[in-house]
């Protein structure tokens, strides 16, 4: 719930100039405005599931896009029902947006790629919750080798540079090697990965899909002493989130979605850090950069 200065679920993921909004809880657009993120740059909104704390900010955001005379298509990824909810609301307000809303239905049974461009793929992560719920795994594609300007001879053709970037040697027409790619290139930059696991109970099948990713966001609604409550409501404890992070060997863990019963978050953080030291709180307005 929006209490203790905290807001409901919403994250902005920026990769190679593309902005993805991940969940859109109540007040999302006010928070975006407060932290100076333009809503015009958002072309894709991913909704993990249809509990109110994950999508009730959507209509307000869409209405502002409409008022701002947006014309670009907006892609909405969600489980079934969202289209119906929004259509009714727009119908009765007699608002006809000048932009197209493209609905992409999700299924929660198995992982599937729902978005792909030159730089990144987004794959769904089936979660274990009270209703159909999926997380999202953002993976950058393998990057090209970098040309080493220090060793690069003059006069190479564009095709030869392209071959180097693919990790191939420069050859002459007869196929003889003129330059090896090792001598003219540096290794590719690291292809980054980020997983968003919104509402879920402790779910070991996640481990395989999350193995070795750079950053994992995993909900930690409760502390371990409320473990039975976590099971009942299909949420996780801080210890459980950290256990998934540890078993998946991720680089960093962010925890969030804290129950309204906790005014102070430090105990949740400390509990998670016992299991997985590289844990941080996903708090309002915080930015986490993943290095290449
Ligand atoms: Zn939920
Ligand atoms: Zn929730």
Structure description:
There is one protein chain. The longest helix has 12 residues, at 82-93. α9 (238-247) packs parallel to α10 (266-275). The chain has helices at residues 28-34, 52-55, 58-67, 82-93, 158-165, 181-184, 206-210, 227-233, 238-247, 266-275; strands at 10-15, 18-24, 42-46, 74-78, 101-105, 113-116, 120-126, 134-140, 146-147, 170-171, 177-179, 185-186, 193-197, 215-219, 252-256, 279-281. The protein is of the alpha/beta class. It starts with 9 loop residues before the first strand and ends in an 11-residue tail after the last strand. It has 10 helices and 16 strands. Bound molecules: zinc ion (ZN) (2 copies).
Query: Major sheet, described briefly?
Result: 7 strands, mixed
Large-scale geometry: globular
Fraction of helical residues: 25-40%
Strand order of the largest sheet: 6-7-8-13-14-15-16
> Count the helices. How many?
10
Secondary-structure-based class equals alpha/beta
Mean pLDDT: 96
Rounded to an integer in angstroms, the radius of gyration calculated over CA atoms is 22 Å
The total count of strands amounts to: 16
First-last Cα distance = 35 Å
Ligand inventory: zinc ion
SSE run? EEHEHHEHEEEEEHEEHEEHEHHEHE
- Share of residues in strands: 25-35%
Model regions low in confidence, pLDDT < 50 over at least 5 residues: none
